[in-house]
């Protein structure tokens, strides 16, 4: 693990080619036990009217799937009251390009995709209506070059969105597991994004959004967070279930 030279925090090591099942397990656990609309469904509504989108660190396409599933009925009321704009927005040809460092992740993502580093995007300047970095900047020792790259490829008025997890996420598991601080946690994400984009808008979440029904689910939740399996089994054995888990984090929105 590389310790970030400027923050002393440790970037989460990417394992998406070596152990893609770890990431998939986490996605399944969230999908099964989440009691609210997913982050991606929410983002799909925020991307209304944005037709060229780059999803940086796109994984296997959770955002692409939510965008494809979004219908005019799911659009905000303002877009629905007037049939003209609603129709136009609902059917606006959206073109999402998935960018990821992992060939394994891109193999499952709808085309078009580009294998690239977030800090070196292979696109001209000023081309996208929206650029997103969802649950990925904590993998970077220094998120600043990636934030500057996202801004570079956005057209004037283009929307940037990043998500970040809070250091005190999942406090109900604190006795057996704690998230290591990373270079892009919800506590600093707002300031980091603002230092590149200027004004930002922040949406925070802090609620028991997931309930893990049994110890197998607790074990899998921990494995998905890179806890080695034997330690996850031991830890899960100490937990009383069902366990409501408080999710804490933030979405940061900024315009170029
Ligand atoms: C936790 S996954 C999130 C995937 C997707 N955004 C989602 O929310 O489902 C993090 C993703 O970032 C990618 N990633 C990690 N470091 C990267 C980098 N330096 N450049 C581009 N992608 C990277 C990983 O390969 C992985 O697909």
UniProtKB/TrEMBL annotation:
It comes from Actinomadura fulvescens. It comes from the Bacteria. CDD domains: AdoMet_MTases. This is Methyltransferase type 11 domain-containing protein. Residues 87-161 form the Methyltransferase type domain. InterPro entries: Methyltransf_11 (IPR013216), SAM-dependent_MTases_sf (IPR029063). Gene3D superfamilies: Vaccinia Virus protein VP39. Pfam families: Methyltransf_11 (PF08241).
């Amino acid at each position: 693990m590389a310790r970030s030279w400027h923050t002393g925090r440790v970037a989460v090591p990417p394992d998406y080619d070596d152990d893609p099942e770890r990431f998939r397990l986490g996605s399944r656990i969230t999908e099964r036990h989440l009691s609210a609309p997913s982050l991606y469904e929410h983002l799909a509504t925020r991307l209304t009217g944005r037709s060229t989108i780059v999803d940086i660190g796109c994984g296997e396409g959770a955002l692409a799937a939510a965008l494809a599933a979004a219908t005019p009925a799911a659009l905000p009321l303002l877009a629905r009251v007037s049939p003209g704009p609603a129709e136009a927005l609902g059917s606006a040809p959206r073109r999402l390009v998935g960018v990821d460092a992992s060939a394994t992740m891109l193999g499952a993502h709808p085309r078009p995709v580009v294998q690239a580093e977030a800090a070196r995007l292979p696109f001209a300047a000023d081309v996208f209506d929206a650029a997103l970095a969802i649950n990925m900047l904590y993998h970077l020792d220094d998120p600043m070059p990636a934030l500057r790259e996202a801004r570079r490829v956005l057209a004037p008025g283009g929307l940037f969105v990043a998500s970040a997890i809070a250091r005190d996420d999942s406090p109900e598991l604190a006795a057996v597991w704690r998230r290591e601080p990373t270079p892009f946690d919800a506590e600093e994400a707002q300031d980091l994004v603002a230092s590149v984009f200027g004004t930002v808008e922040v949406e925070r979440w802090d609620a028991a959004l997931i309930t893990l029904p049994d110890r197998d689910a607790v074990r899998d939740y921990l494995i998905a967070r890179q806890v080695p399996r034997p330690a996850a089994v031991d830890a899960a054995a100490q937990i009383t279930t069902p366990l409501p888990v408080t999710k804490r984090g933030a979405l940061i929105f900024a315009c170029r």
